[in-house]
Specification:
- About 30% of the residues lie in helices and about 30% in strands.
- It contains 8 helices and 15 strands.
- Strands 7, 8, 9, 10, 11, 12, 13, 14 and 15 form a 9-stranded mixed β-sheet that branches. A 6-stranded antiparallel β-sheet has the order 2-1-6-5-3-4.
- It is globular and about 50 Å long.
Length: about 270
């Protein structure tokens, strides 16, 4: 079952025209949300980022997504697809109508899909350094969708080289993010993460880690670090809505792991 513009329909009944602007121009965005134990994890943060993305793309944000019953409907969708205990919900929003580059309207259509999932592994990552692409900061780089091809190509390089993930740098050779995760590191009890204008996504768990650290009195810095500076960290970890994982090696070079801090974050944010 799908949820299309607020209505439940079987997947076989979904019909989108060839003039669909998501298909023709990538004119929209998406959000990935974890459903866990009958709850939408970090729903308020996801909703805030979707509103910001819609504003950036000059889309009228659908009222059906901000209605009081939307959470209940999304959880009903999870139940219909046997994903209420743990599932991966994808909410796609795109500009309605057809047209060429100049749109006919700023109204938006949306679609929610969900599939059952398994808990993400917590084993440390062996990551490579991406050589084929760089991140590119823009008005669109903080949310998911407009730059999707960049991450597809990074994923292709990851597959070819046999790494778990790839470290993406920007055009100034500054550390930005991983393919589908933000990156953090500890150095002398200070928690670091790349600044948003390195071109990284403004991740939901990234926001929650920074919020937690502020409440815990941990010093945080959003920075512009090169690779050599990163390699001097006391520990490095990645994070996204699926979980938090330590980094064990970068291009085959071992780095220090502080699994106790990572486990603390998992307990604070995911349980």
């Amino acid at each position: 079952m799908l949820l299309y513009n607020g209505d439940f329909i079987p997947e076989t009944q979904l019909q989108l025209p060839l003039t669909n602007r998501a298909f023709q121009y990538n004119d929209g965005f998406f959000e990935t949300i974890i459903v866990s134990d009958g709850k939408l994890r970090f729903w308020d943060d996801h909703l805030y980022r979707m509103k910001a993305a819609a504003k950036t793309l000059e889309l009228e944000f659908p009222q059906t997504i901000v209605s009081e019953e939307i959470e209940e409907k999304l959880l009903q969708l999870a139940e219909k697809n046997n994903a209420v205990n743990y599932g991966r919900l994808k909410l796609k929003l795109w500009r309605s109508g057809s047209g060429l580059y100049t749109p006919e309207t700023n109204l938006a259509d949306w679609l929610a899909t969900i599939t059952p999932a398994t808990l993400a592994t917590t084993s440390p990552l062996n990551i490579g350094i991406c050589e084929t692409i760089t991140t590119n900061y823009s008005a669109f780089s903080f949310f998911k969708g407009p730059n999707a091809l960049l991450y597809v190509m990074a994923g292709t390089e990851k597959k070819e080289k046999g790494f778990d993930d790839m470290l993406l740098l920007n055009r100034q050779n500054q550390v930005a993010e991983l393919i589908s995760s933000n990156i953090f590191w500890l150095k002398d009890d200070v928690l670091f993460t790349p600044a948003i204008d390195t071109g990284c996504v403004q991740g939901i768990v990234r926001q929650n880690i920074l919020r937690w650290a502020q409440q815990a009195g941990t010093i945080t810095k959003e920075v512009y670090y090169d690779l050599d500076s990163l390699l001097k960290a006391d520990s490095i970890f990645s994070c996204n809505v699926a979980g938090i994982r330590s980094v064990a090696t970068i291009n085959g070079m071992p780095v220090t792991i502080d699994e106790s801090f990572v486990e603390q974050l998992r307990n604070e944010l995911f349980t």
